[in-house]
Amino acid sequence: MNKGLPEGFLWGGATAANQCEGAYLEGNKGLSTVDVIPAGKDRFPVMFGKLKMFECDKEHFYPSHEAIDFYHHYKEDIALFAEMGFKCFRMSLAWTRIFPNGDDIEPNEEGLKFYDEVFDECLKYGIEPLVTITHFDVPMNLVKTIGAWKSRKMVDYYERLCKVIFSRYKNKVKYWLTFNEINMVLHIPFVGAGLTFEAGENEEAVKYQVAHNQLIGSAKATKIAREISPEFKIGCMLAAGNTYANTSAPEDVWKSIEKDRENYFFIDVQSRGEYPNYAKKFFERNNISVKMEEGDKELLKNNTVDFISFSYYSSRLTSADPEVNKETAGNAFATLRNPYLKASEWGWQIDPLGLRITMNSIYDRYQKPIFIVENGLGAVDSPDENGYVEDDYRIEYLREHVKAMIDAVNEDGVELMGYTPWGCIDLVSASTGEMKKRYGFIYVDKDNEGKGTLKRSKKKSFYWYKNVIESNAEKL
């Protein structure tokens, strides 16, 4: 039995424009949702769409404004990725670099040129860009003027963005993802779709209408991509992780199925091309009426994705008993504490076998190639005077997850395209806005208050991952 992974496997790492680029108004870039999300106590109310903050003020610190300044360091950073042996670099485009207001007629040439240079730098080293079209990124002008994805007009603006980038980069980029973690609109609506809520609004109904608009956007992107280049491979992207039942009580098992469906709903539509019956029944029960336009059903049916990509950090646990089902810390998902698992410093439960379970669940469900585009451990690193970090805890986390991934491929026959661990270089945490919650193989000298030299240095995990890629995971 092959111990490693198939030849041509896309090893790499993942970032997002809003967490690494910085230079938030340079090169004619417009203001984006992430640019008005502060660090500190107001962060979560803004992310959940409960507190409206449409401008920046002097009282708050906004981590995205400088982030790790990839905008000015991309050559150095990509050279480090190449040194590790990356075959693939997952990154996203900042919508407002290309259309500063979102509704501009003509794109911003300076922004387009920046991404040309980033892609050229990747290709120079033989690194395939894997590009997320929008990764938690909505132009603030569209939030203010049309309510962002609440409005069907957003589909037209998104379509315009897709036409421009697909045409411009068709000889440089082959792999595209339509929306990052599309299911996050249900959990962190301002981050996922630029949503804010008015008093008395049926929030659940709004979220599912927005989901429909994004699903239509995704299908249109897929259609345009195929018209522009038959070489393109288009994927969807899910925040994944199976939900376990707290006990073997059938009620708990049923609850876990319902929880998983909440997230699979989006991918069911993107991969199978129609709304699943369980979703239609859920809408009926909850008095949700999703407004569809003529031709929507055909559009969804005829433009399904080529592959399924997902993030995996941990599994989840749920109970049917409301008394038991008290929330704990974790990613944007509420989950019970699993007594069989250890947790990270941020309360995320570490479950490598859960990755194999999730891979099998997704592959069994869709029978399309899958791609793990995020996985990693957020931890506090303590560098020595040279910026070197002995991050054995990160190596251990990744090693166990890579083993589980290999088992899913070699023992279970799951078709896996690649693996791009999250935050291959330290960047701003999407959830907490912190720098101290680090994921990278590369340390960036910057703290939570935004102070530091931005100097890059290699951690112990840098050399470990270089070895993994070189040996195609035969040396872990």
UniProtKB/TrEMBL annotation:
The enzyme's E.C. designation: 3.2.1.86
Molecular-function annotations in GO: 6-phospho-beta-glucosidase activity
InterPro entries registered for this protein in UniProt: GH (IPR017853), GH_1_N_CS (IPR033132), Glyco_hydro_1 (IPR001360), Glyco_hydro_1_AS (IPR018120)
Coiled coil regions in record: none
Keywords, sorted A to Z: Glycosidase, Hydrolase
Gene3D superfamilies: Glycosidases (3.20.20.80)
Source taxon at top rank: Bacteria
Enzyme class: hydrolase
Active site location: E374
PANTHER family in the cross-refs: 6-PHOSPHO-BETA-GLUCOSIDASE, GLYCOSYL HYDROLASE
Family designation: Belongs to the glycosyl hydrolase 1 family.
Name the record gives this protein: 6-phospho-beta-glucosidase
Organism: Clostridium yunnanense
Taxonomy of the source species: Bacteria, Bacillati, Bacillota, Clostridia, Eubacteriales
The encoding gene: ascB
